[in-house]
Amino acid sequence: MADKLVGQNYIPVDLVAKVTGKARYAEDFRADGMLFTKLLVSPMPHARVRNIDMSAALAMPGVKAIITADDLPMLPNNAERALTNEPLYVGEPILAVAAVDELTAAEAIERILVDLEPLPFVVDPLQSLRPGGNNPRTNGNAWGAPPPNTPPGTPAPLETMKWTEQDFNDEDAGHLPMGKALEEWAFGDLEAGFTNAALVLDETFTVQSTGHHPMETRSAMAYWQNGKLYIHASTQSVAQTQPAIARWCGLEPSQVVLICEYTGGGFGSKGGGAVSMSIPAILSKKANAPVMMRISREEESFIGRARTNMSGRARIGFAKDGRITALDLFIVQDTGAYGPLGDHRSAGLAASLIYQPPAMRWRAVNMMTNTPPRTQQRSPGPMQANGIIEPVMSKAARQLGIDQVEIRSINSPSGKALFGPAGPTGQRPHITSAFIKEALARGAEQFNWPMRKARSGQRKGSKIRGVGVTVGPHGAGSIGWDSLMTIRPDGKLYVQSGVGNLGTHSLIDLARVAADELAMPWQKVEVIWGDTSKGLPWTCLSVGSQTTHAMTRANHAGANDAKRKLQEIAARDLGGSPDDYELGNERVYRRGAPGRGLTYAQAATRAIELGGKYDGHELPMDINPMTRGSATRLAGLGLMGVAKDNYPRDGVTYSFVIGFAEVEVDVETGHVTLVDYLGVGDVGTVVNPRSLLAQIKGGSCLGIAHALFQKSVVDPKYGHSLARRFHYSKPLTILDIPATMNASALDMADPETPVGARGVGEPPVGAGYGSVMNAISDALGDDIFRRAPVTADLILMSLEHGRPMHDPLRAHV
Amino acid sequence: MDILTWGRSPWGQQILTHVSWDLLWASLFAGVAFLIAHASYMVLSAHRKRKAEETDAMEAARTDLPPLIRRHGVGARVFHWVMATAMLTLLLTAFLPIVGVQFAWVTWHWIAGLVLTATIVFHIIHATFWLDFWSIWVGPKDIPELKAEILREFGHDVPGPKPGKYPLGNRLYHLGIVLAALSVVATGLFMMVRVRTPFYTRNPYLFSDSTWGVTYVTHGLAGVTLVGMVIAHVYFAIRPEKRWITKSMIFGFITRRQYLEHHDPDRWVVSEPPREKVI
Amino acid sequence: MAVIRDVMPAFELFQPASVSDAQALLKRYGGEAWLLAGGLDSFDWLKDRIKRPAAVIDLSGIADLKGIKPWGDGGLEIGAMTTLTEIVRHPVVRERYSILLEAAESAASPQIRNQGTVGGNVTQDTRCWYYRAGWSCYRAGGNICYADTPQAINREHAILEADRCVAVNPSDTAPALIALDAQMVIRTGAGEQVIAAEDYFVGPGTDITRMTVLKPGSLLTSIRIPGTWAASAEGSGGAGRVQFYFEKIRDRNVWDFALVSVASAMATTGTTIDRIRLVVNGVAARPLRLAAVEDLVRGKPRNEATAVIAGNLAIEGAQPLTFNGYKVPLMRNLVKRAIRGVEDVDWTS
Fold first, then answer.
1. Cβ atoms within 10 A of the Cβ of A632, count?
2. Which of A122, A465, B151, B161 would bridge with B145, disulfide CB 3.0–4.6 Å?
């Protein structure tokens, strides 16, 4: 095959609509008789609804319906619902009013009297761990370990965990207290590792929580027709959100039609949709009219999710040559009002992978607080691991006199490196591949590391430069999903994509793989996405950097299914065996006799005539019921490629991005300027170069913002989020990064997937976060900051007093 | 007119914040109205005064008394005027900004409040150990005097008790002042925790929202009450027929004649020399 | 009554075409009127339903309030409704009052500067997040400061002149205007009033619910900048060389309020400081002109030693809160920089 589409730049089909404003997002839809809803949210961080007097609101002429938690179906395991009678954080919705317009709905809400009984609350996980500390819920404050030998998704038990006064003895020295852990694993000989170490460091670091704040809030509009719910919403994953909505609304998935062609970002907060989608759905049924719910920015800061904040303590032993001998990691995680989440576990696994300790112990408590609920945020866990461990790595390199790139290289994984604790079989898991040493070497050269390193720590005027490097890891691919495509009598390839359109292009990229396998010119490929009524295959969630890996594999399989069917039809009509036929020029033809063949259009028509498996009337047994339903709907339209990804995989797929940063710190103002940045991806085969490099830069930007200023702030007295608006939470702006940011990728294929591609979305976040903070400490020295973001106040006070003056452990400041 | 102003806590609960400042105007109005009413009455009524001859006779009978009788010791007088200054400063710094005269008043206000507190503490100790503590108090035994005084006010020459050292009106006023001033001082001392002073770490969360609400309202009510009371007090101090009392608060003495004319020598026994009990 | 934000309630909207029409409306509605300039501050309050005026008077249709024209002896008069972008682009501002250009250009983001006006920028309310959340603090008419409590998070708050309230003034142009000795032209019911820019702002001791002297019924119409502080080369007009310093420290390089900002106008002969006006903002509820520092450095050489004593004097009496102690060295250093300047650094070597 001459020019493969994979590896080439292209303009995705959705781009023009996005940049011209023609793209319609959930909020842009209208329906006849549509009502608007506004939410009444809790002003208290923890309370019980004693009584609601809505009579004055219901008496208003424009008010059509009100729903409370009592109108929503109960969910298994007391999972979070869209409305509640026991709010667990300030801003948790209690009821929703549907009215003829938002003004009326808002006025109605002001006339509703909600009698709330305040309950004890806590906003800082360590405060809840103290003896006598408040619990965030009436029945506990922590998530326990998932019961052993239970399937994934089994809920963690709710526990009450209190530590002793002695556990807090070290607190004033800035060390994270380490009481009894609720989860723990270990491998190797930890004690021997520390005994044999030339240097042992024991450091505490606090990673802040940050709101996801996608540009598009989680607005949704819903209406009912003939017993079916039609909902326009914003999600990262279309196929996976349909069953979720059904569950939240007490429906069968087949009763839900989800339309989401465009999503204004998610960063993990809309992974499988948002539970708030059930509000317009249920309200619309009660009001018997379409209902639009526009979520405001302030509401988004309440219900829109945030990253788990973590305080971590890492004790690490190093040999003289910089090799880690032992790593002891303790994490206190805060999941906010709901959970449980696994960021703390991902952090431990990532640490064991990228620093390759021969012996490691990981312990954690997974706490709840009465703060807005968390969910996975772009690199959930591994980024926090970078934040906790990178300061120790940098300090060790300085104390041992080892180059920062070097110390990361000698501790980095390569090939099928082991990570984490041994599983039930006694074997430690391993990854599919890693080429980090190559990426570090290439990056050091591209970044001109030796030159920049030479001036790191130098002062000119009031300014000091510093350089930093960090390996950002993240899981990067799942397996076993389905693909669905048809070649129709018009000669075109129609690829059904169940991926969400959150801006990553994996939505379309997966069809490039199918087109390559079928030798189909790109202009003859149509991608169908964003509407569950159009027949979508069972697709992975667009989270965890898995989509490119997962769905290129699936579409590779689906396209090869279609290819085989083309060959079979050709052989059947033109003689010979299917293997005698090959594809090219939109034809399937006899090898060596291009004239002897069928056009794709002819083959599609033949497939319909033949029926059976060729046009989707007979389907493979191993595909998901969702794919089966969609394929059945599309049956008879043309030659169908439909398959589950059954390709083998040896290992767990991880991707890596190396961040190189140079900063300039003004010691008179504490201001940090990021002067230059390079991200180098070890992410397998490059499918879409332009998009990939944009992902590396964009993901790094999120980490850079976290290093420099992005944060969540909660007032501990009243439990209110203070950084509730865009401006206060300080996401990155275009002027906070260098005018030119650089990125590159190794383009070395992963051996365990047919396309060679791994995911890229998340690894750059930890790379940006760690490398910028490392550069700051390289400029100013150790012990300037023990928490992020590293803002002017931390820097100035530490420089002024010669030691960190900030409380490293208090959450949400 | 609202009596109280309400705010909303960050939890959406109604909390008391202040008395309504309308009450300031009400108190001012009440004070001035009383003043006008009383002045008119004094001008228009047949207010009975002791005839000069009667007093002449009493004076002749009591030549054993010194010509000048000490009514207030130096300490008591210094106390009174320091307290008066503090009180006026407090009222002016409190209420001028409310009526629109804006200046940085808070520091002046709490300093004056501390001065007032100190004078009150001094006064309590002084009155307890050096003065006739009970002479200023009002009790059931004063009912006959109340009746007699009221009748006298209406022009009747009636028998019955006459004032001791302190006339009943004076003592009733003192009682009002005691209640208002102790309320204002007690609440004010706690309210200093809400602002920056050298004495405490500022902690507006010392009490619950509702306790603070009651504190502010008490302070406000006592404060506006004091406005009316101070008007009345100043008014009496400058009335011609009361001026001898004012003078005694400056110089310490009243004349024997004033003593006999206005007081009941059985209830305020002046023994010579009077200085031994007065500092 | 439940609280809801982010839905603008109904009000009467007036769009007068003249200052006198606006004044008539102000008179008619009194305290119930709300003056709308660029709307960047106003719409927050209105959408959050915290300030609920009966009438909003949109000044954007009044031509007399817009534009920049010559005034007095080499000065400029800037209409209150002139956008920050217009100021940034004005050739005379660029040539003679570059400090105002820098200050205006440091405000917010390009989009906000296109809409935001200089009148609005100097008159805007504080950004204290407790106050802006609609909590009934002193500034909102209550009797508590939520930002100065033992638990409060007050990194952005005041280190000087706090009086119950610890909010700071957020304006970027205000310190530059004070440094230029600008005058504020105010139209009240009684006629026109002209006051010095530094007197335009009030602290909480004087009026805890207002940031400026503007009372209901008054209107800022223009800002006059005298020629006395126009930038000049040494020797022109017999006076020393006038030069400016402006610096705003913030977390992000765009769309962020100052943590601390400094503005100075300085006339020097040789290295001697002849005249100086020095202003700091972000440290108190009003921009602070540092007259004592000005007196101290006048006549002294412009060097590091003078800068050090100036910086130390500037922060005398500063009282930090739990999280804003850094503002003390930051203010000190910015004053130092305003006196001695900042070295240009070249890292190519």
1. 13
2. B161
Inter-chain touch C324–A722, beta carbons under 8 Å: no
CATH number for the domain whose boundaries are C11-61: 3.30.43.10
| Residues in chain B closer than 8 A to A718 (CB atoms) | 9-11
The domain defined by A27-120+212-303 folds into Aldehyde Oxidoreductase; domain 3 (3.90.1170)
Confidence (pLDDT) at C235:
52
The tokens of A383 are what?
């980024």
pLDDT surpasses 60 at B47: no
Token digits of residue A31: 């329906």
Subunits next to C (3 or more Cβ pairs <8 Å) are A, B
pLDDT per residue over C152-173, tens digit each?
999 999 999 999 999 999 999 9
pLDDT at res. A1: 45
Which chains have 3 or more CB–CB distances shorter than 8 Å to chain B?
Answer: A, C
The count of other CB atoms within 10 Å of the CB of residue B29 is: 12
Tell me, yes or no, if the two domains C11-61 and C239-340 fold the same way.
no
Superfamily grouping for domain C239-340: CO dehydrogenase flavoprotein, C-terminal domain (3.30.390.50)
What is the rounded distance in angstroms from the CA atom of residue B173 to the CA atom of residue B170? Answer: 5
3-state secondary structure of A293: strand
- Among A269, A272, A250, CA closest to A258: A272
A717 with C329: Cβ contact below 8 A? no
**What CATH topology corresponds to B16-50+78-238?**
Fumarate Reductase Cytochrome B subunit (1.20.950)
Q: What is the pTM of this model?
A: 0.94
- Domain A309-477+651-801 in CATH 3.30.365.10: yes
Query: Which segments of chain A belong to CATH 3.30.365.10?
Result: 309-477+651-801, 480-644
Most confident of A170-174, B10-14, C230-234, C294-298: C294-298
Return the structure tokens found at B207.
């009490």
Per-residue pLDDT at B152 exceeds 90: no
Sequence ranges of the domains in chain B: 16-50+78-238
C320 touches chain A (CB under 8 A): no
CB A374 within 8 A of CB A339: yes
Q: Residue C341: what pLDDT?
A: 93
Tokens of A370: 């009465």
Question: Does pLDDT of B221 surpass 60?
Answer: yes
- Chain B residue nearest residue C164, CA to CA: B195
- Among A311-320, A405-414, B125-134, B203-212, the range scoring the smallest mean pLDDT is B125-134
Residue A476: what pLDDT? 96
Residues 720-739 of A with CB under 8 A from C: 720, 722-724, 727-728, 730, 732-736
Q: Please, what's the b/e burial string for B104-113 (b: 16 or more CB within 10 A of its CB; e: otherwise)?
A: bbbeebbebb
Q: Which residues of chain C neighbour A722 with C-beta distances below 8 Å?
A: 129-130, 133, 153
The alpha carbon of residue B232 is apart from the nearest alpha carbon of chain A, in Å, by 45
**CA-based nearest residue to C332, from C349, C344, C345, C320:** C320
Cβ-defined contact of B10 to A720 (cutoff 8 Å): yes
Closest C-alpha to A93, from A235, A218, A265, A245: A218
Q: Give residue B147's pLDDT.
A: 79
CA-based nearest residue to A7, from A749, A763, A544: A749
Low-confidence ranges of chain A (pLDDT < 70): 1-2
**Backbone dihedral region of A86: left (phi > 0), alpha (psi from -120 to 50 degrees) or beta?**
beta
Q: Indicate whether B278 pLDDT > 50.
A: no
pLDDT at B277: 43
Task: Give the chain B residue whose CA is nearest to the CA of C203.
Answer: B104
pLDDT at residue number A570: 98
DSSP string of C207-228, one letter each residue: -TT-SBS--TT-EEEEEEE-GG
Q: In what order do the strands lie in the sheet with A587-590?
A: A581-584, A587-590, A593-599
Amino acid at A511: A
